[in-house]
Design a protein that fits this description.
The protein is mainly alpha-helical. It contains seven helices and four strands; from the N terminus they run E-E-H-H-H-H-H-H-H-E-E.
C-alpha cells in the first residue's frame, strides 16, 4: 500500500471522463423512461392513428439514445487507454491483489456503519471499482448488445444490426420475447445501481471527509484532514 500524507487537492478525473459521466446520466434517464413506455405503452389516443406519432417519437428517442450510449462507451474504452491511471480503474479491477479485496471488505463494513473510520482514496474505492466494473460496465454492454439485437429484428435480415447482433444473440435467448424480458430486467438493474450510486456519493461527500460530488464536476479531489491517503484503489 502506498500512502500519501498531503491534503492538497489532486487532479483525478480528466474532462473526457467527466463529460462521459454527464452524458451517461442523461442517456440513462432517456433510455429508462422511453424503455419503460415501450414495454408498457400509453393508452390509445383519440382520433385517427395517422394523426398521432407519440410512440414513434418515444421509440426514436430510445433508439437514438441507444446509439449514443454505445458510441460513448467505445470512446470511454479508448480513453481508458489514453487517459490517466484513474480513467482505467473501472475497466481493470485488480482482482488478484489481496490488498484490493481487503479494501472491498473494509468498504462493505464502512457502508454498513460497522467501522468508524473511512479510508481515503484518490480515485474510486475498491468496492466502487468492483460495482462499476461488474454491474455498470458489463450491464451497459449487455444492454447495448441485446438492444442492437432487438433493433436488428425490425431492421431485417441483411442489415448490419441483424448480421452483427440478432443472428447470434437471438438463438442464445431462444426467442424474441425472452430477449425482451432480459433487456427489460437489466434496465431495472442499472436503475437500481444508479440509485445506490447517487446515495453513496451523497453519503461519502458528507461522511468520508473527502470531496465526491464536486470532484466529478471539477476533476479535483480535495481532503478535509491530513490522514494518510490509500493510493492503491485499483490503478
Amino acid at each position: 500500500m502506498n500512502e500519501l500524507t498531503s491534503a492538497a487537492p489532486i487532479y483525478v478525473y480528466e474532462k473526457p471522463v467527466r463529460l462521459w459521466h454527464s452524458l451517461n446520466a442523461l442517456l440513462i434517464v432517456a433510455l429508462s423512461v422511453t424503455g419503460y413506455l415501450i414495454a408498457d405503452p400509453l393508452a390509445s389516443l383519440k382520433g385517427e392513428a395517422s394523426e398521432h406519432f407519440l410512440m414513434g417519437y418515444i421509440r426514436f428517442v430510445h433508439f437514438s439514445a441507444g446509439y449514443l450510449i454505445a458510441i460513448a462507451l467505445l470512446f470511454r474504452l479508448y480513453w481508458g487507454y489514453a487517459g490517466n491511471e484513474h480513467a482505467r480503474q473501472i475497466f481493470l479491477p485488480p482482482l488478484l491483489k489481496a490488498h484490493f479485496w481487503q479494501g472491498v471488505f473494509h468498504e462493505v463494513l464502512w457502508y454498513l456503519f460497522l467501522v468508524k473510520e473511512p479510508r481515503k482514496y484518490i480515485g474510486h474505492n475498491p468496492l466502487a471499482i468492483l460495482a462499476m466494473h461488474f454491474v455498470f460496465v458489463w450491464g451497459v454492454l449487455f444492454m447495448i448488445v441485446t438492444g442492437f439485437a432487438l433493433y436488428g429484428e425490425g431492421a431485417g435480415q441483411g442489415s448490419w444490426q441483424h448480421t452483427l447482433f440478432s443472428s447470434w444473440v437471438l438463438p442464445i435467448f431462444g426467442s424474441s420475447q425472452s430477449l425482451h424480458s432480459w433487456h427489460h430486467l437489466f434496465m431495472w438493474l442499472i436503475i437500481c445501481f444508479v440509485l445506490v450510486h447517487i446515495y453513496v456519493a451523497l453519503r461519502e461527500d458528507k461522511l468520508s471527509r473527502q470531496s465526491m460530488l464536486s470532484t466529478i464536476v471539477t476533476g479535483w479531489r480535495t481532503f478535509k484532514d491530513d490522514r494518510p491517503v490509500d493510493d492503491e484503489s485499483g490503478a
